[in-house]
Specification:
binds inosinic acid; 179 residues; 9 strands; alpha/beta; binds magnesium ion; 3 helices; 3-stranded antiparallel beta sheet
Length: 179
Protein backbone atom coordinates (compact mmCIF):
# COMPACT_ATOMS: atom_id res chain seq x y z
CA UNK A 1 0.00 0.00 0.00
CA UNK A 2 1.25 3.45 -0.90
CA UNK A 3 1.73 5.45 2.30
CA UNK A 4 3.35 8.45 0.70
CA UNK A 5 1.88 11.81 1.63
CA UNK A 6 0.20 13.64 -1.23
CA UNK A 7 2.20 16.46 -2.80
CA UNK A 8 1.12 19.97 -1.80
CA UNK A 9 -1.03 21.53 -4.51
CA UNK A 10 -2.66 24.34 -2.51
CA UNK A 11 -0.98 25.15 0.80
CA UNK A 12 -2.76 25.76 4.10
CA UNK A 13 -1.77 29.40 3.86
CA UNK A 14 -3.10 29.80 0.30
CA UNK A 15 -6.42 28.21 1.34
CA UNK A 16 -6.65 30.36 4.47
CA UNK A 17 -6.12 33.55 2.48
CA UNK A 18 -8.64 32.58 -0.17
CA UNK A 19 -11.31 31.53 2.36
CA UNK A 20 -10.85 34.81 4.25
CA UNK A 21 -11.32 36.73 1.00
CA UNK A 22 -14.45 34.73 0.08
CA UNK A 23 -15.77 35.42 3.58
CA UNK A 24 -15.31 39.16 3.12
CA UNK A 25 -16.97 39.16 -0.31
CA UNK A 26 -19.94 37.09 0.81
CA UNK A 27 -20.39 39.14 4.00
CA UNK A 28 -20.38 42.27 1.88
CA UNK A 29 -22.84 40.91 -0.72
CA UNK A 30 -25.29 39.73 1.96
CA UNK A 31 -24.80 42.67 4.34
CA UNK A 32 -28.44 43.66 4.05
CA UNK A 33 -30.10 40.27 4.53
CA UNK A 34 -31.38 39.22 7.92
CA UNK A 35 -29.72 35.80 7.78
CA UNK A 36 -27.70 33.74 5.31
CA UNK A 37 -28.51 30.03 5.33
CA UNK A 38 -25.44 27.96 4.42
CA UNK A 39 -26.00 24.48 3.06
CA UNK A 40 -23.00 22.18 3.15
CA UNK A 41 -22.86 19.27 0.75
CA UNK A 42 -21.54 16.29 2.66
CA UNK A 43 -19.10 14.94 3.03
CA UNK A 44 -16.47 16.81 1.04
CA UNK A 45 -17.42 20.33 2.16
CA UNK A 46 -17.33 19.79 5.93
CA UNK A 47 -13.98 21.49 6.52
CA UNK A 48 -14.52 24.25 3.99
CA UNK A 49 -17.92 25.17 5.44
CA UNK A 50 -16.47 25.17 8.97
CA UNK A 51 -13.83 27.71 7.93
CA UNK A 52 -16.06 29.71 5.58
CA UNK A 53 -18.87 30.06 8.13
CA UNK A 54 -16.36 31.43 10.65
CA UNK A 55 -14.95 33.86 8.07
CA UNK A 56 -18.38 35.49 7.70
CA UNK A 57 -19.26 38.58 9.69
CA UNK A 58 -23.02 38.43 9.03
CA UNK A 59 -25.77 36.43 10.76
CA UNK A 60 -25.80 32.91 9.34
CA UNK A 61 -27.16 29.45 9.98
CA UNK A 62 -25.92 26.08 8.75
CA UNK A 63 -27.58 22.91 7.49
CA UNK A 64 -26.30 19.91 5.58
CA UNK A 65 -27.39 17.44 2.96
CA UNK A 66 -25.63 14.49 1.40
CA UNK A 67 -25.39 13.46 -2.21
CA UNK A 68 -24.27 10.22 -3.71
CA UNK A 69 -20.59 10.10 -4.49
CA UNK A 70 -18.60 8.08 -6.92
CA UNK A 71 -15.20 6.49 -6.89
CA UNK A 72 -12.54 7.96 -9.12
CA UNK A 73 -12.20 4.67 -10.96
CA UNK A 74 -15.88 4.22 -11.78
CA UNK A 75 -16.55 5.50 -15.28
CA UNK A 76 -19.20 6.34 -16.22
CA UNK A 77 -20.64 7.26 -12.85
CA UNK A 78 -24.24 6.63 -11.93
CA UNK A 79 -26.95 9.26 -11.63
CA UNK A 80 -26.72 11.84 -8.87
CA UNK A 81 -28.94 11.11 -5.85
CA UNK A 82 -29.90 12.85 -2.66
CA UNK A 83 -28.98 10.58 0.25
CA UNK A 84 -29.72 12.78 3.28
CA UNK A 85 -32.04 15.76 3.09
CA UNK A 86 -31.96 19.08 4.97
CA UNK A 87 -33.49 19.45 8.42
CA UNK A 88 -34.74 22.91 7.62
CA UNK A 89 -37.36 24.33 5.30
CA UNK A 90 -35.59 26.81 3.00
CA UNK A 91 -38.71 28.57 1.69
CA UNK A 92 -38.19 32.33 1.94
CA UNK A 93 -34.55 32.01 3.06
CA UNK A 94 -31.39 33.36 1.48
CA UNK A 95 -29.50 30.19 0.67
CA UNK A 96 -25.84 29.66 -0.19
CA UNK A 97 -24.84 26.12 -1.20
CA UNK A 98 -21.28 25.30 -0.13
CA UNK A 99 -19.53 22.65 -2.23
CA UNK A 100 -16.03 21.23 -2.14
CA UNK A 101 -15.49 20.84 -5.87
CA UNK A 102 -17.38 21.06 -9.14
CA UNK A 103 -16.19 18.43 -11.58
CA UNK A 104 -18.70 17.38 -14.27
CA UNK A 105 -21.24 19.82 -12.81
CA UNK A 106 -23.92 17.12 -12.50
CA UNK A 107 -24.13 17.25 -8.69
CA UNK A 108 -24.45 21.01 -8.49
CA UNK A 109 -26.89 21.17 -11.39
CA UNK A 110 -29.17 18.59 -9.76
CA UNK A 111 -28.89 20.23 -6.36
CA UNK A 112 -29.58 23.78 -7.50
CA UNK A 113 -32.75 22.72 -9.38
CA UNK A 114 -33.93 20.70 -6.40
CA UNK A 115 -33.39 23.57 -3.95
CA UNK A 116 -34.84 26.17 -6.33
CA UNK A 117 -38.09 24.19 -6.38
CA UNK A 118 -38.43 24.76 -2.62
CA UNK A 119 -38.90 28.51 -2.95
CA UNK A 120 -35.85 30.13 -1.34
CA UNK A 121 -35.72 33.96 -1.32
CA UNK A 122 -32.38 33.66 -3.16
CA UNK A 123 -30.12 30.76 -4.12
CA UNK A 124 -26.41 30.93 -4.92
CA UNK A 125 -23.46 28.61 -4.64
CA UNK A 126 -19.90 28.76 -3.43
CA UNK A 127 -17.39 26.09 -4.29
CA UNK A 128 -13.82 25.87 -3.12
CA UNK A 129 -12.57 24.22 -6.31
CA UNK A 130 -13.65 23.87 -9.91
CA UNK A 131 -12.30 21.74 -12.73
CA UNK A 132 -13.66 23.49 -15.84
CA UNK A 133 -11.96 20.98 -18.17
CA UNK A 134 -14.22 18.21 -16.78
CA UNK A 135 -17.54 19.99 -17.20
CA UNK A 136 -20.41 18.04 -18.81
CA UNK A 137 -23.23 20.21 -17.51
CA UNK A 138 -22.83 23.98 -17.47
CA UNK A 139 -23.44 25.40 -14.01
CA UNK A 140 -23.16 28.91 -12.66
CA UNK A 141 -20.67 29.28 -9.82
CA UNK A 142 -21.30 32.45 -7.82
CA UNK A 143 -18.25 32.23 -5.55
CA UNK A 144 -15.14 30.26 -6.45
CA UNK A 145 -12.00 29.51 -4.47
CA UNK A 146 -9.66 28.10 -7.10
CA UNK A 147 -9.87 26.84 -10.65
CA UNK A 148 -7.76 23.70 -11.02
CA UNK A 149 -6.77 21.36 -13.88
CA UNK A 150 -8.10 17.83 -14.38
CA UNK A 151 -6.30 16.11 -11.50
CA UNK A 152 -7.68 14.16 -8.52
CA UNK A 153 -7.11 16.27 -5.44
CA UNK A 154 -7.37 15.25 -1.80
CA UNK A 155 -7.33 16.89 1.61
CA UNK A 156 -9.20 19.77 3.28
CA UNK A 157 -12.32 17.57 3.22
CA UNK A 158 -11.74 15.88 -0.12
CA UNK A 159 -11.02 12.19 -0.22
CA UNK A 160 -9.66 9.37 -2.27
CA UNK A 161 -11.77 6.38 -1.22
CA UNK A 162 -12.27 8.00 2.20
CA UNK A 163 -8.58 8.68 2.75
CA UNK A 164 -6.87 12.04 3.25
CA UNK A 165 -9.95 14.11 4.22
CA UNK A 166 -8.19 15.50 7.29
CA UNK A 167 -5.05 16.73 5.47
CA UNK A 168 -4.72 20.45 6.23
CA UNK A 169 -3.73 21.28 2.64
CA UNK A 170 -5.00 20.23 -0.79
CA UNK A 171 -2.71 17.69 -2.34
CA UNK A 172 -2.26 15.48 -5.35
CA UNK A 173 -1.72 11.78 -4.82
CA UNK A 174 1.83 10.75 -5.52
CA UNK A 175 1.90 9.01 -8.87
CA UNK A 176 -0.46 11.60 -10.35
CA UNK A 177 1.35 13.51 -13.12
CA UNK A 178 2.69 16.90 -11.99
CA UNK A 179 0.75 19.94 -13.15
P1 LIG B 1 -19.62 16.34 -10.20
O1 LIG B 1 -21.05 15.97 -10.08
O2 LIG B 1 -18.90 15.55 -11.25
O3 LIG B 1 -19.39 17.83 -10.36
O4 LIG B 1 -18.94 15.81 -8.90
C1 LIG B 1 -18.68 16.54 -7.82
C2 LIG B 1 -18.27 15.62 -6.67
O5 LIG B 1 -17.31 14.63 -7.06
C3 LIG B 1 -17.59 16.47 -5.65
O6 LIG B 1 -18.49 17.06 -4.77
C4 LIG B 1 -16.65 15.47 -5.00
O7 LIG B 1 -17.31 14.78 -3.98
C5 LIG B 1 -16.28 14.51 -6.10
N1 LIG B 1 -14.99 14.90 -6.72
C6 LIG B 1 -14.78 15.37 -7.97
N2 LIG B 1 -13.48 15.61 -8.21
C7 LIG B 1 -12.82 15.28 -7.08
C8 LIG B 1 -11.42 15.32 -6.68
O8 LIG B 1 -10.51 15.70 -7.44
N3 LIG B 1 -11.15 14.88 -5.42
C9 LIG B 1 -12.11 14.45 -4.56
N4 LIG B 1 -13.41 14.41 -4.87
C10 LIG B 1 -13.78 14.83 -6.12
MG1 LIG C 1 -19.05 17.47 -2.98
Amino acid sequence: MNREEPKVFLSEEAIRRRVAKLGRRISNDYAKVENLHLIGVLRGSFIFIADLSRALTIPRSVDFLAMSTYESTVVPKGPVRLITDLRTDIAGKHVLVVEDIVDTGDTLDYLMSLLASRGPASLKCCTLLSKPACRKTEVRIDYLGFEIPDVWVVGYGLDDKERYRALPYIGIRSGEPAV
